Amino acid sequence: MGQGLHTKVAQVAASAFNIPLSSVFISETSTDK
């Protein structure tokens, strides 16, 4: 996923939980086993 999408998801999460954007952390999904 692109960085722009990560920013949008973080903004939605911050808004939904009424927390600062700086408190939201998005990590990549690991497909390693």
Automatic annotation (TrEMBL):
Domain (Aldehyde oxidase/xanthine dehydrogenase second molybdopterin binding): residue spans on this chain: 1-33
Molecular function terms, GO-annotated: oxidoreductase activity
Pfam families, A to Z: MoCoBD_2 (PF20256)
InterPro entries xref list? AldOxase/xan_DH_MoCoBD2, AldOxase/xan_DH_Mopterin-bd_sf
Q: Which domain of life is it from?
A: Eukaryota
Q: What is this protein called?
A: Aldehyde oxidase/xanthine dehydrogenase second molybdopterin binding domain-containing protein
Q: Which organism is it from?
A: Cucumis melo
